[in-house]
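Continuing the series of single-chain predictions for the mutant panel. This is the parent chain; the variants come on the following pages.
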Amino acid sequence: MGTGMAPGADGSRVRLLVDLIGQVGEARLRVIGSSMLPSIRPGDVLIIRRRPIGDVRCGDVAVFVRDDRLFVHRVIAHHGSHLVTRGDSLPSPDAPVTATELAGVAVRLVRGGKARQVSSRVGLPARLTGALVSRSLPANRILQRVYAWRSLSSPW
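Parent structure:
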């Protein structure tokens, strides 16, 4: 499962978000999935901006639609007409993302009331954590609980 937003019964919320990005150029999305742990956590809010596929770079966090679901995964390769993406905590890449599937790129992240740039680089500790949670469901669940506990106990 990808990091993103669960659709309504007919995917209408996903279509509404994609239309908003297309018309206004930007939208906010609260993350519910865990495929981008530890970089992007459930509960984080992403600011997504419209971006043509030709302007997307490796390391960017792409937001795309597939089967009436929204996915937020890192670009690991760019092959002209399509992108190759993968969740930071997933072991294998997604099927190629085309320009028609691309909704935009996550440019900012809001966590605990503080905004920051979405990093295009994943450091060694985050890569190791991602590798661990991609191979171990118990580790993934523990990490999600730790982040949830931190957010509840933080005064911010």
